[in-house]
Amino acid sequence: SQYIVTIPLTMKKGETTMKKILIVLLTLMLVLTSTSVFAKDRPAATHIIGDLAIMRPLGFCSFVLGTAIFIVALPTAVISGSTKQTADVLVGDTFRYTFTRPLGEIPSGI
Q1: pTM of whole model > 0.70?
Q2: Distance between CA atoms of 86 and 92, rounded to whole angstroms?
Q3: Number of C-alpha atoms within 13 angstroms, CB side, residue 91?
Q4: Residues with Cβ < 8 Å from 48, sequence gap 6 or more?
């Protein structure tokens, strides 16, 4: 057996009013909830102090250690053709974390 779907082309007055209200409410919800995504919050003072006192020194130690490990691994990286990838992971990531990210912004996943 076959099912036939019919779509009404005309609406009653109450249905159009409800649809208009629904459209307005959905639009308001979308606008009001999406603005917080674009807002850039300032980091809290505790985040800045913790970053400056703990995370940056640890990042600097990671940078120095990563650079030393890269120097040791350099001959193997050259032979395998992975010098750029090895340098980026061991030196580049720790450098960016320590010296280029804004103070107080600690990335997730740490």
Answers
A1: no
A2: 9
A3: 13
A4: 103, 104
